[in-house]
Specification:
Layout lengths: L9 H7 L6 H8 L2 H13 L2 H20 L13 H67 L5 H5 L6 H8 L6 H8 L2 H13 L2 H20 L13 H75 L5
Helix pairs in contact: 2-5, 3-5, 5-10, 5-11, 8-11, 9-11
Length: 315
């Protein structure tokens, strides 16, 4: 043999090929009913409309109970006890839902990155096979031309195989797996934050928080007065505990957002490098095809010329 790598056969590539994964569809199929509910809530809460609604409700409530007629105020300044209670209920319910949404988005991003990595690896393998096939075909065309002594030496020098293929192999970098790189770059503190958010950002934790809050508030609002330990309507102890929980979870949410951002950046960089590499390989393939096309035309012209020389048309 000539020592050149043999291109894989079409059948071998077909056997290696996996169906292209649609990460969005796979993500949707894997969602449980509780997770779908969490996504539905976060899709509607995480909007500027909801933000404007909360701002409007708060400003109207606080403004009325500060500047309205004293006899009509129902949550007197400066305590705003009822407003504090309702706002804490909203926060303690929404906080776990936000973390559930973040975890689902993170798992969705990882699935997308894994799908993109698999597609890039397959595309690189197939591009390499195409390049090898084209190189083999070009060599066969040159042998065919030389065998029949078509053309002249000055023409032959212009028919060499494009050298860009070798340069391309030197420039080629291994395809990056953004998920693996993301995991490797995490610091111990970030790994701990991820571990916490993976467990807190679940529908199970959301249910626990809701059951705890409604049981606590219901008992202290409806139970016999002598058995209440956090009297209605202030619920001071519940407000304290819920604020402690929120003040601990808020930084974790921010950490999760930053990690998702860095993951997205790593994925975008890897995708950019893969696209640049694919563009280079496409250019080389086109160059091969153009050279082969020119060579085939030259061979055809030489055959036509010989045919006319051997069988001149009758004048």
């Amino acid at each position: 043999m000539n020592g050149k790598p043999e291109p894989p056969s079409h059948e071998a590539l077909i056997k290696l090929r996996k169906p292209i994964r649609n990460a969005n569809i796979e993500h949707e199929k894997k969602l449980s009913p509780a997770e779908r509910f969490a996504v539905w809530i976060t899709d509607r809460v995480g909007t500027m409309g909801f933000f404007g609604l909360i701002c409007l409700w708060s400003f109207v409530w606080l403004g009325w109970n500060t500047l309205g007629p004293r006899a009509l105020r129902f949550d007197p300044f400066p305590a705003f006890v009822l407003w504090l209670f309702l706002s804490n209920v909203i926060q303690i319910v929404l906080m776990p839902l936000i973390m559930v949404g973040q975890n689902l988005q993170g798992s969705h991003d990882e699935a997308r990155a894994e799908s993109e990595y698999e597609t890039s690896v397959r595309a690189e393998r197939e591009n390499q096979a195409i390049l090898l096939h084209l190189r083999r075909q070009h060599d066969l065309l040159l042998k065919f031309r030389d065998q029949f002594a078509l053309g002249n030496e000055s023409q032959h020098r212009n028919d060499t195989v494009p050298s860009a293929h070798g340069a391309l192999l030197e420039l080629r970098k291994p395809i990056r797996n953004a998920n693996v790189e993301y995991e490797e770059k995490l610091s111990p503190a970030e790994r701990f934050a991820v571990w916490i958010t993976d467990r807190v950002g679940t529908t199970g934790f959301f249910v626990i928080v809701c059951v705890w809050s409604f049981t606590w508030l219901g008992w202290n609002a409806l139970a016999p007065r002598e058995l209440r330990f956090d009297p209605y309507p202030a619920f001071v102890f519940w407000l304290f505990l819920s604020n402690v929980l929120q003040i601990l979870l808020m930084p974790l949410i921010m950490v999760g957002q930053n990690l998702q951002g860095s993951h997205a950046e790593a994925r975008a960089d890897a995708k950019y490098e893969t696209n640049v590499q694919a563009e280079r390989e496409t250019e080389v393939i086109l160059l091969h095809l153009e050279r082969q096309h020119d060579l085939i035309l030259k061979i055809r012209d030489q055959f036509e010329k010989r045919k006319e020389e051997r069988h001149p048309s009758a004048l």
